[in-house]
Design a protein that fits this description.
Layout: E1 6-8, H1 34-39, H2 47-62, H3 69-82, E2 90-92, H4 94-105, E3 107-110, E4 113-118, E5 121-127, H5 132-136, E6 143-147, E7 150-151, H6 157-164, E8 171-178, E9 195-202, E10 204-207, E11 211-216, E12 220-225, H7 232-245, E13 250-254, H8 263-271, E14 279-285, E15 289-294, E16 306-310, H9 317-327, E17 332-335, E18 343-350, E19 353-364, E20 379-380, H10 395-406
Parallel strand pairs: 12-13, 13-16, 16-17, 17-20
Antiparallel strand pairs: 1-18, 2-19, 3-10, 4-5, 6-7, 6-8, 8-9, 11-12, 14-15, 14-19, 18-19
Length: about 400
């Protein structure tokens, strides 16, 4: 792994998402093995070192299930990274970092879902088509309740990811909760997040698709972008070039349920539709000051009408792209208000793994602050996420097709 800083945008609902850790503080080097002490060293004369040492020793004496040194170290590092209120701060050890790297490359062993986290638990942000999860009937919005024999009220994306991934060909049994519909809410709510159901899924190699593309009625070229990883810009360009060659006269970019990812890819995707040198995003950092990332000049089309679909799970890099295209009036944004994550996480090599911390905030191309606010669509249209599975019932997509066709008449 390169020792240089790698900047990525991570979001709730991302492939590797913001994790919730319940252990705060730091762990004294006196309690660690020599190897672990290199990862984390604390001045024993400070209250920080003294109190964490005492607490660790007290847990070894009194706790029903005292942590090992390595577990305590991981919890302490994560607690420190969140001690400033950074909900996206986290530490990944070598094993977790390897899993994250596999995800960003787009291939891993698992069931085929993107995870999100809210309301203190983990949910399915997105289900990739033709994967074990899709065949088992998992849907976006379903919450994790039980994995094999483990039930938890404090699932984190890291815990779920670790439990769900495994050797190809083995099985994992999931008890999920599907959110109640408004007209189905029971008077006596036994399960907080919805009706439970159980499925057993066989793990497989998951090659996550970056895009899904097709030609729709009226020569509308449709591409869905699932996430922003290292292949996204190239894959999106290839998909649109094929559709344009086939005669597409207008385009739809579907960013619904897209949790974000690589910041540089957000710039690359925006560059496909904007002129060279236009601002894409403003980055404001305490350490680095303010910088502006601009389009690369590798434009695909500046003229074909473009509709961008978004919803409440469209976050981070998705918001950078939709915000830039909206700022320049290059596209019509359609759907629901986006998630509202406008901060940048940096991956910093640390010990055998990496520390992820928020190092900057961002504004849209023309200076709008969307953090905790989201992008408000030009055309607002609420819709149940489950309807995305059926094109005939997907009212947002149908409206996008209608708008795209009207712009070519």
């Amino acid at each position: 792994m390169s020792k240089e800083k790698s900047i990525v945008v991570l979001v709730l609902g991302g492939v590797v998402l913001a994790l919730v850790f319940f252990v705060a503080g730091v762990l004294s080097s006196q309690l660690l093995s020599a190897h672990e002490a290199k990862l984390f060293a604390t001045n024993q004369n400070s209250a920080l070192g003294s109190q964490t040492t005492q607490l660790f020793n007290l847990m070894q004496k009194e706790a029903n299930d005292p942590p090992s040194e390595s577990t305590a170290l991981s919890g302490a590092l994560n607690g420190l990274l969140r001690s400033n209120g950074d909900q996206y701060g986290r530490y990944l050890d070598a094993k977790a970092l390897s899993s994250y790297t596999d995800d960003m490359k787009g291939q891993f062993g698992g069931i085929g879902v993107v995870l999100g986290e809210k309301n203190g638990t983990v949910f399915v942000n997105q289900v990739y088509p033709d994967t074990p999860a899709a065949k088992a009937g998992l849907q976006a919005g379903d919450y994790f309740y039980k994995i094999d024999k483990t039930t938890s009220n404090a699932w984190t994306t890291q815990k779920v990811q670790s439990a769900v991934k495994g050797k190809v060909g083995t099985t994992v049994t999931l008890t999920m909760q599907r959110p109640y519909k408004k007209d189905e809410m029971p008077q006596d709510v036994k399960y907080n997040f919805g009706n439970p159901y159980t499925v057993t899924i066989t793990r497989a190699i998951i090659s996550t698709p970056n895009t899904e593309s097709k030609m729709l009625d009226g020569k509308v070229g449709y591409v869905r972008l699932y996430e922003f990883n290292e292949k996204s810009t190239d894959d999106l360009r290839s998909a649109y070039e094929k559709l344009i060659k086939e005669g597409a006269t207008s385009l739809i970019l579907d960013l619904r349920d897209n949790p974000g990812g690589d910041l540089n890819q957000a710039v690359g995707v925006s560059s496909l539709f904007l002129e060279k040198g236009q601002s894409v995003v403003q980055i404001k950092s305490r350490v680095q000051g303010t910088s502006v990332l601009k389009t690369t000049g590798k434009t695909l089309t500046k003229d074909l009408p473009l509709i961008v679909l978004v919803n409440a799970n469209s976050a981070s890099a998705s918001e950078i792209v939709s915000g830039a295209l909206q700022d320049y009036k290059r596209a019509t944004i359609l759907g629901m208000k986006t998630f509202g994550k406008a901060c940048v996480q940096t991956e910093l090599p640390f010990g055998d793994g990496a520390a992820f911390m928020t190092t900057a905030d961002y504004l849209t191309a023309k200076g709008r602050d969307i953090n905790a606010k989201g992008i408000t669509p030009d055309v607002k249209l609420e819709m149940d996420i489950a309807l995305e599975l059926d094109q005939a019932k997907d009212t947002q997509l149908q409206k996008a097709i209608e708008l795209a066709q009207s712009k070519t008449q």
